[in-house]
Amino acid sequence: MTHAIRFHHTGGPEVLVWEEVKVGQPGPGEARVRHRAIGLNYVDTYVRSGLNPASLPSGLGTEAAGIVEAVGPGVTEVEVGARVAYSGGPVGAYSEERVMPADRLIVLPDGISDQQAAAMMLKGMTAQYLLRQTYKVKKGDTILFHAAAGGVGLIACQWAKALGATVIGTVGSDEKAELAKAHGCDFPIVYTRENFVERVREITNGTMVPVVYDSVGKDTFLASLDCLRPLGLMVSFGQSSGAIGPVDLGILAQKGSLYVTRPTLRTYADQRSDLMTMAQDLFDVVLSGAVKIEVNQTNPLRDAAKAHQDLQARKTTGSTILTV
């Protein structure tokens, strides 16, 4: 019998339970995947806590890598035996096996391991749309990226550096500052003792930055606006410190006719053609060596609750995977 991590009511990590589940045969347009590695992402805590609603009882997770074991009628995207990975689609990646929409599966190239794939599909494609689509980072840009030592942050710092940008990043400790710096962050700012607005002003000689990438939310949003130059873009793509809450749009005019966007990977990768293009861009930059995918924490799938505890306690750096 297949096992999975599920929860029957929302709450802290303690609500996660290891239980048996039935996995049926794939229907039309579906494939059954046996997982080898599963990605842990901060958005999983939003679903578990109820911040992002789910129908209960519910599975968890939207990112994994594994082997296709069966395909349903009409499936042309993947074949039995293919190594695949995915990010997105219905929740339920925290499982030994599952049935997935075949059009969400990406065949992995030989140079990408299952562990790398599970650690990079959501985070890496998030970095892709942030740096290559939401705001197209170019040579000579100076950008601010919050949580620079996190999973998305470490990928984004390397990628932005490869694009020729100067990267300013916020981190929570000296250890994380060193880690971010080793991954392309030119100016790590330890926000627990430094005012990041003042540091951005010093680093840029008062010109500030054209874009801020912020997955922190409530604790950084308003100060981040002060880091932008006139007509700058605030990219709010997460809320690890809590929801931002109501904002008077007049403040955008006062601070220099600023722009704000709240993008999601789901929107950018909604069409399979876009999903494939984004994944290929990610694979290319990883295979070239410009971006290294490092798994810094590994937990057995059945210990997902501990992985959630460590993630929310800010004890993790880079990517964490759950192994089957």
- Label the CATH architecture of the largest domain: Alpha-Beta Complex
Q: Give the rounded overall mean pLDDT.
A: 94
In the CATH hierarchy, what is the superfamily of the largest domain?
A: Medium-chain alcohol dehydrogenases, catalytic domain
Helix content: 25-40%
CATH fold annotation of the largest domain: Quinone Oxidoreductase, Chain A, domain 1
| Total DSSP E strands | 15
Structural Rg:
20 Å
Question: How many helices?
Answer: 10
Strand content: 25-35%
> What overall form do the CA principal axes indicate?
globular
Runs in which pLDDT lies below 50 for 5 or more consecutive residues are none
Name of the CATH class of the largest domain: Alpha Beta
How many structural domains are formed by the residues?
2
- SS-based class: alpha/beta
The helix-strand sequence is EEEHEEEEHEHEHEHEHEHEHHEHE
Largest sheet report: 7 strands, mixed
Q: What's the N-to-C terminus distance?
A: 14 Å
